[in-house]
Every structure is written in structure tokens, then in C-alpha cells.
């Protein structure tokens, strides 16, 4: 199965939310702890999580499959 259009939108929305959330959390952590490596680790973890959530073709991304018209004879 392949990802449908609604699934593409959902995957993109989730990936952007996850990366944004981990960016903010990483920045706050890095600022408060003065730890650049920790900040980048949190950000990298968010990118990896977004990759795992968005790249594989999970079944949740194919709930609205496209119905094609039958071929003309």
C-alpha cells in the first residue's frame, strides 16, 4: 500500500510538530544547562523520531485511499 494525500499531510504535520517541539525543548535545555552537546542531542533525537514517524508507510497514513475511475473500453 502507499500513502494517500491525507496521510501525506498528516505525516508532514507530525514531523514538523515533532521537530519544532524538540527544537524548543533542546534550546531551553541547552540555554539553562549551558550544554551545547545536550541541546544538539535532543534536537537530533527529535529529527530521528520525526524520521521514524514520517518516512515508513504506516497503515495510519492510508485511511483515505484514492478511488480511480474504471478504464474506458
TrEMBL record:
Superkingdom of origin organism: Eukaryota
GO biological process: one example: protein targeting to ER
Mitochondrion keyword on record: no
Transmembrane segment boundaries: 13-32, 39-61
GO CC annotation, single: signal peptidase complex
Major location category of this protein: endoplasmic reticulum
Keywords: Endoplasmic reticulum, Membrane, Transmembrane, Transmembrane helix
General function of this protein: Component of the signal peptidase complex (SPC) which catalyzes the cleavage of N-terminal signal sequences from nascent proteins as they are translocated into the lumen of the endoplasmic reticulum. Dispensable for SPC enzymatic activity.
Family named by the database record: Belongs to the SPCS1 family.
Protein name in the entry: Signal peptidase complex subunit 1
Source organism (scientific name): Chlorella variabilis
